[in-house]
Automatic annotation (TrEMBL):
GO molecular function: ATP binding; ATP-dependent peptidase activity; metalloendopeptidase activity
Species this chain originates from: Chloropicon laureae
Name listed for the protein in its UniProt record: Peptidase M41 domain-containing protein
One Gene Ontology biological process: proteolysis
InterPro entries in the cross-refs: Peptidase_M41-like
Highest taxon of source: Eukaryota
Length: 146
């Protein structure tokens, strides 16, 4: 879940909460953002790209940290839901390309912000608050525009 959390932060999506429960591990984005992006109409290309990268954060994080990725089903389901809300209907090839690009971009960002990612994983495993997690990201992130 740290991958989703960090990528949401880097994409400017407010994080409301997170859970590491085995049967409900989730990062909850701020309700206002989700309501606008998911319920008030189709997603434009920029919104879809940003949310696709966030959705693939779990897959990317597992791929970096472990040899085997096991939690991809829910992330791919979330991504499919996002693609279904796109203004432009994506054909199969475009969906595959978006999925590949989103995973590649997520891996790239997690590698670029590796120190922040590792610190965030520590904080989340300690049960830190969202505020404490964000402070950990900001104290460990490279001095770059986010």
């Amino acid at each position: 879940e740290a991958g989703h959390f960090l990528l949401a932060y880097l994409h400017g999506s407010p994080i409301a909460d997170y859970s590491l429960e085995l049967k409900g591990a989730r990062v909850q984005l701020g309700q206002a953002v989700l309501q606008r992006k998911l319920y008030q109409g189709p997603l434009d290309d920029a919104e879809l790209d940003s949310l696709a990268v966030i959705a693939m954060g779990g897959v990317a994080g597992e791929a970096i940290k472990y040899e085997e990725v096991i939690g991809q089903t829910e992330d791919l389901f979330d991504l499919q839901s996002l693609m279904n809300k796109s203004k432009k209907k994506l054909n199969d090839s475009e969906q595959q390309n978006l999925t590949r690009w989103a995973v590649l971009r997520a891996v790239s960002l997690l590698n670029e912000y590796q120190g922040a990612y590792e610190r965030l994983m520590e904080k989340m495993s300690e049960g830190a608050s969202v505020y404490e997690c964000i402070c950990a990201i900001e104290s460990a992130a490279p001095n770059q525009e986010k």
